[in-house]
TrEMBL record:
Stated name of the protein: Toprim domain-containing protein
Organism name: Fusobacterium nucleatum subsp. polymorphum (Fusobacterium polymorphum)
Coiled coil: 318-345
Keywords, comma-separated and alphabetical: Coiled coil
InterPro entries membership: TOPRIM_DnaG/twinkle
Amino acid sequence: MSNIKSLNFKEKLEKVHQLEDKIFNYYNIDINNFYCATCNDKRLKPFKSKIDKHIKLKCYGCSTTFDIIDLVKVIDSNLKNLNPGAVVDYLLSLDYSNIESASQVEQIKKSKLDPFLIDYDEFIADSLNKFNRAVDTKNADELEYLYSRGYNNEDLIYLKNYLGLDENNNIMFACSRESYILRLLKPWHDKNGKEIRYKNSPRLENTRHYCYLLDTVNQDNIIKNNYNIFLFEGGFDTITFRILCKNKCLAFSTGGADSNHNLIANKINDIAGRLNYKVNVFILFDNDEAGEHNTSLLAELFNKNYINVYTKMSKFLFKNSKDISEEFKNNRDELETRIKYLLNKIS
């Protein structure tokens, strides 16, 4: 440390980051159990910065991000009012010779999507907080994209407690980050700036899927919803139907990938085989050649001994449009009338 004084701030900060494990242990900072100093929310999560690979903590209550300088200023009251340069100098002046350097971040979750941190529970919580705040405050700027698709603020209230949560507020989200949750407040665009409305899910191993709300399909929910299940291709199609049903339905999306069909059919076949009554499956894919083809492929996989499969309902519900989202935007009143008629018939 004898040459520290000759270093500039950036170089000193790099030295601090090299010591961050020892600094955390010196101050007895448990980065896996640290309360947010801004909102007093416990949901801080460690991650490694993509830019410099150093450890930071993110609060999924208020979205504040803390680095090591922020953390020690919270812990050590003597540093509270010092500027970053003075804090760095102080940290480099401490004796860490008897301090262990065992890293606390070995438990950080990794995935193929993000080599540093993908913690879906916290990611969902963060996204939900942002979305819910926008709905509560009627933030037209943040909600502009959803409004452009035909939703109004009253519609979005129905989504507040169903974007990745079950009825008991437990996180059970099962959908790709790209295909749904990141699009809550903004659309996709390709490299030329053109908006992309749909993107098929990539193929995954059979134990994983990008089927939005498939995990809501269980024996209790099937019985609760009068043995009726509604299948859509896209996540937005699913939430559009849920809004019009005031969330009183069992609906999920296939993720737009036929590679998910066996997973879906096997799950529903297994549950239906244990019930006392036949399950009604309504496949509401797009009104086009591809949608009809995928409908036929999926319909063949259901066990007709336990399941009634309805494949023509798309033409009835959104006969003027390609899909339910388009019909919702252009002919909402007529669509609502048809859905009410259908629900009355099958209730």
